């Protein structure tokens, strides 16, 4: 399981009310377990890690679209700030960090934009675009993804996605 750099704990996924949830387990000999994050609708599918120690700072899951929830206050605040600063690219993830975590490699994208990579400097709060994720698609109008539900034969609502060509 992933460990939480510096606080002597590990993370594991286990079921809570039929859904995969993330728990923090102390490695101090007590093995005390606490709920780190759960979602009543869907499974937690991964953890978000950052920095040399791979500190766990959040979780990911998919409902009608992909979500990242940062339970680390600093990264939650940064993701919100950067999401507001980068128009139309609301999905913010932190891909890597310098050894002292003062510089972050940031990915910003959306359902209709493959995204861009940025370098964010914490000390001077500067964001610099580094590279397009798929440069061959720059300027190409991409389809938006629309979440839909439809009834199965037994009446259960099945989630799906509708993607129509642009225009």
Rg over C-alpha atoms, rounded to the nearest angstrom: 19 Å
Overall shape: it is flat
Share of residues in helices: under 10%
Sketch the major β-sheet.
Answer: 4 strands, antiparallel
Total beta strands:
12
- What's the mean pLDDT score? 87
* Strand percent estimate: over 45%
* Total of DSSP H or I helical runs spanning 4+ residues: 1
Main sheet: which strands, in order across?
7-8-9-10
Helix and strand sequence: EEEEEEHEEEEEE
What does this structure look like?
There is one protein chain. The protein is mostly beta strands. The chain has one helix at residues 73-85; strands at residues 9-16, 19-26, 33-37, 46-50, 55-62, 66-70, 91-97, 103-110, 113-121, 126-132, 145-151, 157-163. A four-stranded antiparallel beta sheet has the order 7-8-9-10, covered by helices on one side. The longest helix has 13 residues, at 73-85. The protein is flat, with a radius of gyration of 19 Å.
């Amino acid at each position: 399981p992933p460990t939480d750099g510096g606080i002597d704990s590990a993370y594991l996924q286990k079921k809570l009310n039929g859904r995969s949830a993330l728990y923090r387990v102390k490695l101090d000999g007590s093995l005390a377990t606490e709920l780190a994050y759960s979602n009543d609708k869907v499974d937690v599918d991964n953890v978000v890690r950052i920095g040399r120690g791979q500190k766990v700072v959040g979780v990911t899951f998919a409902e009608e679209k992909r979500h990242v929830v940062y339970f680390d206050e600093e990264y939650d605040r940064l993701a919100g700030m950067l999401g507001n600063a980068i128009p139309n690219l609301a999905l913010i993830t932190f891909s890597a960090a310098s050894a002292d975590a003062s510089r972050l490699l940031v990915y910003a994208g959306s359902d209709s934009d493959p995204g861009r990579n940025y370098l964010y400097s914490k000390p001077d709060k500067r964001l610099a675009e580094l590279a397009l994720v798929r440069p061959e698609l720059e300027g190409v109008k991409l389809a938006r993804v629309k979440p839909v539900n439809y009834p199965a034969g037994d009446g259960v609502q099945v989630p799906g996605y509708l993607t129509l060509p642009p225009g």
